[in-house]
Amino acid sequence: MKILVFIKKNPLFSLGTVMFFLLVFIALFGKYLPGIDTRLDEIIFLRDENNIPFAPPFGPNERFPIGTDRLGRDLLSLIVLGARETLIVIIAIALIRYLLAIPLGFFAHKNRFGVNILLNWINGFLSYIPTIIIVILLATLHPIVLSKIRPLYLILIIAALEVGRVAEMIKLELNQLSTKEFITGGNAVGISNFRLLKKYYMPFLYGKLLVNFVGDIGKVMFLLGQLGFLGIFISHSFMQTDAGVSGFENTSLSWPTLLTDAFRDLRGAIWIPFYASLAMTYVIFTFNILSQGIQKLLK
Amino acid sequence: MGWDFLKSSFVFVLIVLGFILLLLAPRIMTVHNLGGYYTPKTEMSYKENIQAFIHDFQTDGFGENRYGTRVLDELKVFIKRDLMIVIPSFLLSILGGIFLGIVQFQFRESPFGKIQAFFSWIFSSVPDFFFYIAMQYALIKLFYVGLPQFNLYGSDKWYSFILPMIAVTLYPMLHMSKYTFTSLENEVGQDYLRTAYAKGLRTLGVLKHLIWNCLSSLLNQTQFVMLYILTSLFIIEKLSNYFGAGYHLYGTMINNEDPRTLAFILPYLLIMFATIILTKICRRWLVPQRSGEAR
User: Fold this and answer.
1) B140: nearest CB among A124, A134, A270
2) Most buried of the four, A135, B9, B15, B240, by CB within 10 Å?
């Protein structure tokens, strides 16, 4: 009964939680679900009613509920199996961003190490030039392209680029908090800056940070989707495909990689980009609802 | 005002220079054969790259594309197409967004307002690329059922700009509407409103007061709206085969055509700059000066 009252009081939070756990469930146990082809068999051709073979991609039919990709792999299985990697990457990016932003925001609030100027420039630059263009320019840099830990670099780049926005928000919150009396009290007692941040400021920030953090996960998914259309993924490796010829080889199952051929697919196999971006939209939705729900809950 | 303008121009120049420096970081790779191993290496160092760029720029300007057309000539065509989307989309986002926000505010207690709030929230969570693909998928299905066919892709028909424009406008417009709603709601309970009601003003008259007072914070959003439109344009043009500057920008970046990339991104930066300057002018002429109000 209590649960029902809670759900009625916090519909958004409840809905968001259910959607989130569904996502986690698929990411963890999706491969055990019935109808999921874990081997991702490539079907080379099917036969139509006149027994004439035709090649993939196959549109949605009884055998493949949402169709196949260009190699004839079941799209539903691809999306389910790719969920885990996608989730890990977007959450990692958001997490790194916030871990970087908290100290930066604090230093900016204290006006130390020129962090304030740095933040102003980063934010100014990014309010002129679309983030996605900067990501492309940085991601195609030679040392990063050839690095063995390229995925890590890319995660860091995407996390760091928007760190300015988050740090600015934290700074403003801290500025507001610092006028409170208990902070003056802490200062008067003479505690260290680290302790001041940890014990005096942070307890008041956790709620707000959580709301923004969850919302940001959705935003990261959005950016990765956009990058996917342009063929820039977190994980693919630069390989020697032939003597003297090197190229990018796709080595992951994450959702944005399904959009690689989106421009071609839109004219034929539109279900591939449609369902891949539908999955991303679901993620964005989940985290938006959850973020709103938490905000209402904390009020 | 003049001082403000100078400062903005200075920042603009710095941002262009910063972008050029980022653009010229060494990217071109060639593969060398070192004793059986094929190792990719960059062709030029950063310094050489910058020197070459300056030299090229002095001798040939933005140069030619690989088919021998002057970059500036092709750019003129592309920019015209871009502006066909950007300008209506911007106006629609700002004006339509404010209008939707006002409507939602006016009916916030009634079921109509609640439904509107719900839908605007749902649609603002939908990424533009999904919205666009879904729109195309739906139209293709409708063509089968009997909707008269028209061209979904390309940029050669007079109506080509409409579909991409809708996709580009959706999010900024809803953002604007949400923002308007919130700032109007923050004004509720202010003394001047009570006075206005007490003097017998009707709803519309009071709304006019409200909007006038919110205008300053609404104008703050123009830069964000424009940035969002340009970001989104970059993707949607690719998705819709709309041959604007945004469509070609990605190709130039991947193919390391540095002067061409610069030529294609400069209009974007100039549009942003114009938005900032226009906003400043609007703020100066339109926004009422608040006297002695501590807020």
Assistant:
1) A270
2) B240
